[in-house]
Amino acid sequence: MAGEGFWRRIAGHRPDPRRPPKRWVWLPYDQQQPSHPLLDPTVHGPREETAVVFVETAAKPARRPYHAHKLVLLLASQRHQALALAQAGHPVVVHFSEHWYDRALTEVRERWRFDRLDASSPAEAEVRLPVASLPWVHLQPNPFFITDRAFWRRVFPKPGPRLMETFYRAARRHTGLLMDGGKPVGGVWNLDHENRKPWRGEPPVPPRPRFEPDAITREVMDLVRTRYRGSFGAVDGFEWPVTAAEAQRAADHFVDHLLPHFGPFEDALHADEPALFHSLLSASIHLGHLDPRTLCQRAEAAYHEGRAPLSSVEGFVRQLLGWREFMRQVYEEHRDLYADTNALQATLPLPDWYWGRPSGMNCLDTTVRQVIERGHSHHITRLMVLSNIANLLGVDPHGLNEWFWFAYVDAYDWVVTPNVVGMATFADGGLFVTKPYVASGKYIARMGPSLCNGCRFDPKQAAGERACPLNPLYWDFIDRHAERLATVRRMQLPLKALRALAPEVLDSHRREAATWKAIAAKARYRSA
Ligand code: FAD
Ligand code: SF4
Q1: For residue 191, what pLDDT band results from cuts at 50, 70 and 90?
Q2: Which of 155, 323, 333, 375 could lock onto 69 through a cystine, CB 3.0 to 4.6 A?
Q3: What DSSP character marks residue 208?
Q4: Residue 3 pLDDT exceeds 60
Q5: Is the CB of residue 468 below 6 angstroms from any atom belonging to ligand 2?
Q6: Which among 380, 438, 443, 457 is the best mutation to test ligand 2's pocket, defined by most ligand atoms within 8 Å of the CB?
Q7: 444 CB under 6 A from ligand 2?
Q8: What is the pLDDT of residue 526?
Q9: Beta partners for 348?
Q10: What pTM was computed for the model?
Q11: What is the β-pairing status of strands 183-184 and 179-180?
Q12: Which of 481, 73, 495, 33 minimizes the C-alpha distance to 293?
């Protein structure tokens, strides 16, 4: 049976009913820190006295067809952690259930009869909320983010727009990261304008460390292959870090070899180098294998030691201390809004192009291929290719959100939803972004020329057989939403350009766009 070796090994570490543990702690999948405060023996006594509970549930993959790499990543990292804690002396229970986390934990309690279970709050609301309703579960605040709710309330004491820049500057001051007394290091808060270079092969991207699956991971791969066949993507090719030590190696490589070029090429797209100089650390950070504050400090040290320019280091700190922390809090504050908001009233079902059927648009097809292969693509492909094309077509933002949620290894409700429903699709009406992120083929041609060079369409053409579909769709989008965008300051230029179009040109864009929208509607995804 798949997974047999792990179960045999962990069975020897179950609690001894003759000497029941004094404490019970549940470690959710997003808390695989090498040292968890709830397991600190200097605070809580000998390890033998604290039993640790892990849950493996079939209910999670039943909810969404998560990428096979994500399932392997979650299960393999939990299993490695369970064995490591068992070897350190903790009694360990790994409970397999068909049910959601609240019922699964209830099953554990019925079997082991404890009065109280301690845990730090899982970041994912869909896990946290049902578990929080169990009176014998004591959830403490999640300590694995740099900022907390009290900090958020201090930054935004009143209702109203939430600007990431306001939050980020306050977080820099609060943590002292990249600060020189009360001023930002280098005298400016934001070096984004230096970070917009396309990449044309230089400097070369250093090869990344590889993480060959060990016996425990290979067992999980077999399990996912046989049991969760409906997953997006295949198990093959899995090589994400599954332990804190492996994640640390990936982080070392990033700081030493990629960070120096991270900033300038942060927005670049390339057909053959899917990750360029991005860290690929998001999944490891979300699982608890890497500490975000330490990563920021390491990046800052690289700047002070002259190993990375400020544009890269500030860009990286902005993502982690800024965007990651901001997104978590904005989601917590506006969860109800994010459940169904659809400010641009976009309703088209997501086309099957996002499941791998070729659309002919090289930017889209290449990115989708990357996601199918690894459950990842970098920020600009998510924003300016996948979401941009969906926006231009008028795709339902919640359908798109579901797709991102199951297709990416780093997707959890608190981070994927504000990114997709908020930042990428403007479906929240601009709660924290100052304009919808939409662009024509010109943007892709500038930031990712290798994509357009390999495409059957021409980014310079807007009509005719070789016209890049993004061009007429872009003008159609601006035209369709002109009234709504009239009050958006950063959309005034495109609106002015729209008004300058000759009527017959605008008509042609509308016709071409209608053709593409009809093709996309026919390509609606139907599950097998
Ligand atoms: P890097 O480019 O190396 O950035 C460093 C770190 O900064 C990341 O590891 C991540 O932890 C953090 N970060 C950067 N941008 C963001 C952001 N906008 N929100 C939160 N954290 C950020 N990120 C996720 O972690 N999970 C998601 O499900 C997710 N969905 C997204 C969907 C869309 C439509 C968009 C536009 C962005 C999404 N992001 C998501 C944000 C971002 O694309 C990823 O965090 C990033 O690409 C992860 O790759 P990396 O580790 O190489 O990041
Ligand atoms: Fe994408 Fe248009 Fe460029 Fe083709 S020409 S890759 S469709 S932007």
Answers
A1: confident
A2: 375
A3: P
A4: no
A5: yes
A6: 457
A7: yes
A8: 81
A9: 395
A10: 0.97
A11: antiparallel
A12: 33
